[in-house]
Design goal:
Blueprint (H helix, E strand, L loop, with lengths): L1 H30 L2 H25 L4 H16 L3 H40 L2 H20 L3 H29 L3 H33 L2 H19 L7 H5 L7 H6 L1 H20 L3 H9 L3 H6 L5 H17 L4 H18 L6 H33 L5 H28 L2 H15 L18 H6 L6 H14 L6 E2 L5 E2 L4 H6 L6
Antiparallel strand pairs: 1-2
């Protein structure tokens, strides 16, 4: 009886193992589906962008209070040295502004180098590097106990963002080659960016209040680690043969001199100035004019997430039907941003203030969703379809606005006033909107026919598509032993006789 029972248990265990093996095979075959792999890559990139923007904004409710506590402790140790304590209090606002801006400043400096690096090695490895640096930065934030360490962690995050953000957006543009699909995928990424920026302050404030400073950063570090591990399951580094066959992207300085790309980059900078300048100044203005509480200051931006997502959705739908009007959607967004910015000083309650802030975020969604795909299209029709450098330019545009915001906005408010700051930002956006008229003829451009495309006999649709077509030609000649599939993943090469016997290849 005992032997029969053990045999039955062994049989049931074998059946379960067999079922698990079949499910694993099904999962593996499902993962080989190009569409599923592409969607998985989109998820990985969106999570990376979410993490970066959450880490950027999560310190807003934490760091000022934490630095004030550190200063109080130092003053208590100083005892009778009250003049030093007063000087430290006077410098606290400057320290916070420099700390907030350090990430964008370093990102601004590194982006030209990271864009070139991404063009040379592909999008996968730089994204992994960015996630690893962001993980280290988040861990340092969690355990930092002085201003110098916090500054180092914030600057390190800028280094990680220069790789993760640029390579992530470029990877989406490369994987989604159809204009409608590309706009939709980039719109999803922008929604994650918006969600990360707007949900991070309440997320950080609540956890900081009830669990301490370390917990918000530990949670973000764990998610970053999981996203990096997921990325490792879908990418592999290029071989020497593959790297030798990679198309050479247009240098970033030449892209910057392209008048169409310059207009788009200027629009991305100008449209983000109101958000970048309001974030460090609006809390003190609310406190002085509305007697707003801390929770009201923390939640004032949260409702703006919904019009931002609405703006992304509306722009994607309109771009699918009327792609020739992308410039108009961007110009309309800048006018909405300008009008909303001018109405901010007229608000007298937090409830009233939500409406112009929602207008600002709705306008930014229109501009970003319309112009980010336009950058990829401009590279396709006027340059080589490698997107690292062009999206490094886009990241430079964002970083320029957010580097100036914490440092310049406070000085403008101090010297001119909060009303003048908003009127100036609104006027700049409205005056820049007509510049997008230059983009009217972009949709009529045809893709360039370079010597590389003629040799390939087909028109490549991105970095990995170009590599795949070149390597298949070399494989037929026996010059290369590795290949890359349509999703940038390595395939096991077959022999030439196997290829010939299996019939023609369809690309």
């Amino acid at each position: 009886m005992e032997s029969e029972g053990s045999a039955g248990l062994a049989k049931s265990a074998a059946l379960k193992l067999s079922e698990m093996g079949e499910r694993t095979k099904q999962l593996g075959s499902a993962m080989q589906d190009p569409n599923r792999q592409r969607k998985l890559i989109l998820v990985i990139v969106c999570v990376a962008l979410l993490l970066d923007n959450m880490l950027y904004m999560v310190i807003v409710p934490i760091i000022p209070d934490y630095l004030a506590d550190l200063e109080t402790e130092q003053a208590a140790r100083a005892h009778d040295n009250s003049s030093v304590s007063r000087a430290n209090r006077d410098n606290l606002d400057i320290q916070i502004g420099v700390l907030f801006a350090s990430k964008a400043i370093l990102q601004l400096m590194v982006n030209p180098l990271s864009g070139t690096f991404i063009d040379r090695v592909g999008y996968d490895i730089p994204l992994l590097i960015g996630l690893l640096v962001m993980f280290v930065s988040t861990c340092i934030f969690a355990f930092a106990d002085n201003y110098g360490t916090l500054f180092a962690a914030r600057s390190l995050q800028g280094l990680g963002s220069a790789f993760a953000d640029t390579s992530g957006i470029a990877m989406i543009a490369d994987r989604y080659t159809e204009e409608a699909e590309r706009s939709r995928a980039l719109g999803v990424a922008l929604a994650f960016i918006s969600f990360g920026s707007l949900v991070a302050p309440p997320f950080g404030g609540v956890l900081y209040e009830f669990a301490g400073k370390r917990v918000p950063f530990i949670v973000l570090a764990f998610v970053c680690l999981v996203d990096g591990a997921l990325l490792l399951t879908v990418i592999r580094p290029f071989s020497n043969c593959t790297r030798a066959n990679m198309p050479v992207g247009t240098p970033i300085y030449r892209l910057m001199m392209d008048p169409y790309i310059a207009v788009v980059a200027g629009a991305l900078t100008v449209c983000n100035i109101p958000l970048a300048f309001l974030e460090p100044t609006i809390s003190s203005w609310m406190e002085s004019t509305m007697n707003a509480s801390k929770w009201e200051m923390g939640l004032i931006w949260l409702p703006a997430f919904f019009p931002h997502v609405l703006g992304v959705y509306v722009t994607v739908r309109l771009a699918a039907k009327y792609p020739e009007l992308q410039w108009f959607y961007g110009a309309l967004g800048m006018v909405i941003i300008g009008a909303s910015s001018c109405t901010v000083p007229a608000c007298r309650t937090p409830g009233q203030l939500m409406f112009p802030l929602c207008g600002v975020c709705f306008g930014i969604a229109l501009v970003d969703t319309a112009l980010l795909p336009t950058l990829a299209f401009l590279v396709d029709v006027r340059h080589v379809s490698v997107y690292g450098s062009v999206y490094a330019i886009a990241d430079i545009s964002y970083s320029l606005a957010y580097a100036l915001g914490p440092v310049v906005a406070g000085q403008i408010v101090h010297n001119l006033g909060f009303v003048q700051l908003n009127l100036g930002m609104g006027l700049v956006n409205v005056l820049y909107a007509p510049a997008l008229l230059l983009l009217r003829c972009v949709c009529q451009m045809k893709k360039s026919c370079s010597e590389r495309n003629v040799l390939l006999e087909e028109e490549p649709k991105g970095l990995y598509d170009s590599i795949r077509m070149q390597e298949r030609r070399l494989r037929r000649k026996g010059l290369c032993t590795t290949t890359v599939d349509e999703n940038g993943l390595f395939e096991t090469p077959r022999s030439l006789s196997e290829e010939e016997s299996s019939g023609p290849e369809f690309i």
